[in-house]
């Protein structure tokens, strides 16, 4: 729960700023579209420093790095709240992103190291909830604080949460201080930083063009080239920063590929749905946030069923089911229009929240079923990088569909454009289910406990 609270703070903060951009822009004397550079700076910091999080945890101790990450995140929050110009705000968000880049992968590493494999699904259920609640509650909380108090409060609320996290982690996180002071792969760090930051920055500019779109394509090209060079480098070095050899593990590979494909739709929803509700249906930001918040309730409800369904049905069938129907529910949001009753919208979002949370709980646990303890730090970093890239890709796909649809119609952005985008990203997410159906029925049973139940019945 300590890890989950810290991760909720990070996940909420990554989206809470979106609804407050106009108020912040007015206060510091810039345009909202220019201020989207702050969103991009945050995700670029994640892309640069997540790859090195595993080495930092092995070198200085995971618990120490986790507490330091919370402290850096708090300092970044304070810097954001006192920013007085576009430049200072963008730099503050970048600094805040450095702290955030260590919290998620190192927090997951602490969980894996302190939890027996057969209890990992239940533990991941707690850790998955904030990752899904944060993006849904962010717009609601951001809209409320900005409307009724001040935009500065969206950053100040992180301070008491962070202080409590540092203190409680020091008292209750009794995790073995496993250290593996391998030499740092400096060349790999530079190449990985260029690859992931170039990709994330390029996708962000393409989907939310705060800069001329040519910069997005150029940085994407740099990212792809650097990624190819990194793979060539990693094969020749003894201690690669992120070891591609981990993909030899079938279950780890499946969880990365399947989770990334499914996350395309999941990453697009927080971008598409609030815009459709506000621009298409004419709702206020607070009304929009109040509707989308129901997905967070679904995520909480999933905690009480996740462990049991994976014990009963196993990973392959349950993950395939959740990906298929979760993707269909994402696509179903394309049927919404201004006349759709709010209870129906909320029912679809509630069911989708349950399925997505169950999926990510199981998928995150499945990825560690065939990973050795000494590989866990690199595995958590690879998982975190894959998550950021797939979410950025989901937003880029959604933004690209909206742009293409409006150009083909030759008109302004309309509800039909959002509907098309939901159908496409929902269809992509359903395809993730195929990656799990190829697995044996008892794959990952050492984590899910599925085989043990079956044998006991026999």
SSE order and pairing:
Elements: H1 2-16, H2 21-28, H3 32-60, H4 62-81, H5 86-114, H6 120-148, H7 153-156, H8 158-172, H9 186-207, H10 213-236, H11 250-280, H12 285-292, H13 294-302, H14 306-313, H15 315-332, H16 342-366, H17 376-409, H18 415-430, H19 433-437, H20 445-448, H21 450-457
Helix pairs in contact: 1-5, 1-6, 1-8, 2-3, 3-4, 3-5, 3-9, 3-17, 4-5, 4-8, 5-17, 6-12, 6-13, 6-16, 9-10, 9-17, 11-12, 11-16, 11-17, 11-18, 13-16, 14-15, 14-21, 15-16, 15-18, 17-18
What can be said about this structure in brief?
The protein contains 21 helices and no strands.
List keywords for this structure.
458 residues, mainly alpha, globular
Uncertain ranges: 453-458
- Distance N to C terminus: 37 Å
- What is the beta-strand fraction? under 5%
Rg on CA atoms, Å:
21 Å
Oligomer: single chain
Given the C-alpha coordinates, what overall shape results?
Answer: globular
Major sheet summary line: none
Strands, count: 0
Overall average pLDDT: 81
Q: H/E series, N to C?
A: HHHHHHHHHHHHHHHHHHHHH
- Computed structural class: mainly alpha
The helical percent reads over 70%
Q: How many helices in DSSP terms?
A: 21
What does this structure look like?
This protein has 458 residues and is mainly α. Helix content is 79%, strand content 0%. The protein contains 21 helices and no strands. The chain has helices at 2-16, 21-28, 32-60, 62-81, 86-114, 120-148, 153-156, 158-172, 186-207, 213-236, 250-280, 285-292, 294-302, 306-313, 315-332, 342-366, 376-409, 415-430, 433-437, 445-448, 450-457. Helix 3 packs parallel to helix 5 (86-114), helix 11 runs antiparallel to helix 12 and helix 11 packs parallel to helix 17 (376-409). The longest helix has 34 residues, at 376-409. The chain is globular.
């Amino acid at each position: 729960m300590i890890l989950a609270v810290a991760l909720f703070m990070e996940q909420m903060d990554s989206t809470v700023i979106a609804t407050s951009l106009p108020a912040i822009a007015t206060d510091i004397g810039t345009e909202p579209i220019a201020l989207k550079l702050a969103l991009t700076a945050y995700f670029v910091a994640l892309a640069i420093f997540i790859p090195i999080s595993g080495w930092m945890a092995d070198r200085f101790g995971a618990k120490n790095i986790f507490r330091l990450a919370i402290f850096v995140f708090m300092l970044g929050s304070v810097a954001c709240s006192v920013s007085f110009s576009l430049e200072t705000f963008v730099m503050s968000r970048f600094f805040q992103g450095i702290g955030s880049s260590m919290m998620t992968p190192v927090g997951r590493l602490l969980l894996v190291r302190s939890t027996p494999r057969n209890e990992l699904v239940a533990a991941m259920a707690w850790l998955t909830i904030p990752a899904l609640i944060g993006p849904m509650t962010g717009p609601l909380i951001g809209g409320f604080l900005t409307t009724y108090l001040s935009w500065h409060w969206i950053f100040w609320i992180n301070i008491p949460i962070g202080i409590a996290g540092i203190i409680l982690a020091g008292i209750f996180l009794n995790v073995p201080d496993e250290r593996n002071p391998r030499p740092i792969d400096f060349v790999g760090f530079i190449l990985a930083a260029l690859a992931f930051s170039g990709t994330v920055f390029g996708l962000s500019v393409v989907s939310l063009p705060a800069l001329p779109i040519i910069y997005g394509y150029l940085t994407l090209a740099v990212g792809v080239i650097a990624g190819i060079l990194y793979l060539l480098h990693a094969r020749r070095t003894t201690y690669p920063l992120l070891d591609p050899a981990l993909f030899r593990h079938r279950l780890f590979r499946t969880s990365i590929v399947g989770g990334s494909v499914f996350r395309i739709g999941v990453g697009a929803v927080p971008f598409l749905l609030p815009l459709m509700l506000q621009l298409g249906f004419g709702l206020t930001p607070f009304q929009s946030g109040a509707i989308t918040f129901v997905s967070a309730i679904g995520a909480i409800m999933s905690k009480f069923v996740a462990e049991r369904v994976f014990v009963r049905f196993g990973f392959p069938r349950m993950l395939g089911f959740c990906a298929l129907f979760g993707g269909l529910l994402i696509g179903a949001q394309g049927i919404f229009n201004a006349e759709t009753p709010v209870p129906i919208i909320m029912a679809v979002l509630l069911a989708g929240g349950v399925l997505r949370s169950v999926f990510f709980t199981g998928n995150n646990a499945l990825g560690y079923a065939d990973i050795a303890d000494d590989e866990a730090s690199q595995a958590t970093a690879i998982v975190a990088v894959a998550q950021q890239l797939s979410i950025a890709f989901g937003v880029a796909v959604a933004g690209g569909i909206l742009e293409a649809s409006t150009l083909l119609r030759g008109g302004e952005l309309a509800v039909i454009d959002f509907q098309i985008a939901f159908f496409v990203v929902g269809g992509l997410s359903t395809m993730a289910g195929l990656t799990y159906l190829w697995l044996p029925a008892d794959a990952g049973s050492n984590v899910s406990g599925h085989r043990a139940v079956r044998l006991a019945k026999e």
